[in-house]
Amino acid sequence: MRASVEFTVESLSAYRAPDKLVRAGIPVLYAKSLSKTSVRLKVAAKDRKKAFAILRQSCYNVENIRYRGLYALGAACRRAAGLILGAAVFCGAALFLESRVLRVEIAGSGAYYAREIAQILKEEGVTTFSAFPADTGALTAKILELDRVEFCSFRFRGGVLTVDVEVGDSAQAQKSMPLLSPATGTVEELVVVRGTPLCKEGDRVRLGDVVVGNFSEIGGERREAVVMARITVRYAAEREYAASEEEALAQAYLDFGPLEDLRITKTEKGCRIGGTAFSTAALGLT
Question: Which of 60, 82, 93, 182 could link 55 by a cystine bridge, Cβ 3.0 to 4.6 Å?
Fold first, then answer.
């Protein structure tokens, strides 16, 4: 693919331009008259500087310069270098964030110990942007010291650390409570093992709505029950950030978690990030 450059020569004597270049030892690869005062020419890329100098010294106007062949490809690569670098930086940042604790979720029947567990995590060095420890023995031992806690496990995925804490039956009876909606949106998934569902998949719910009641109806009689259920709510998330695109995407990941149908809009202040987010709440289930 031969590297070349096309351009338009404007002058009252534009028709003389090809001959002037040939007499100067510059091969003309293409010539076409566009009007009485303009001619379209093509020369090899290596001859472009000499050709432009000769024509401009002779009072010809050189306009509409377009590169062809390998030279055009190289120019395009140079223009795209910034985009490629930005993409590489974003991918590197995403991989880094995937290996760091971005959010902590407490699940299970012992979820009411969320404040105490957060303090234990902090004491053991597990904070936002810290690496998840390979050895969780010390964390497990401290959490199991909490009153009536019988089981503890950890799950780390996509920057989200989920701590599953289960307590004994006596503690569950004391902590009978309904499951509340974690966001305003549409119910994506609802799993109820124990308790009474007050909505179904596809329903609209608001933040704080009771979605699973802590009661059961047996033979027409309502009895208190310890809820075992999980709900995931789908909602539209959008926020403007006064930051670069890469920084805005990273912050949106922290604020909302992974987004589906991701939208990125440039604004005067920075970037607006939007998409579909998911929020999960559970009692007695993970």
Answer: 60
Structure tokens at 226: 């310890």
Residues 124, 181 contacting (CB under 8 angstroms): no
Residue 219, SS3 per DSSP: coil
**8-state DSSP, 242:** S
Number of other CB atoms surrounding residue 37 within 10 Å: 14
* CB neighbourhood size of 244 (10 A): 14
For residue 27, pLDDT beyond 50: yes
CA torsion, points 275, 92, 279, 189, in degrees to nearest 10?
80
3-state secondary structure of 4: strand
Confidence (pTM): 0.43
Handedness of CA 130, 132, 133, 136 (dihedral sign): positive
Question: Helices in 164-229 by DSSP H: which ranges?
Answer: 169-174
CA angle 8, 12, 13 (to 5 degrees): 80
Distance of CA 115 to the CA centre of its chain: 29
H-run or E-run covering 80:
helix 69-98
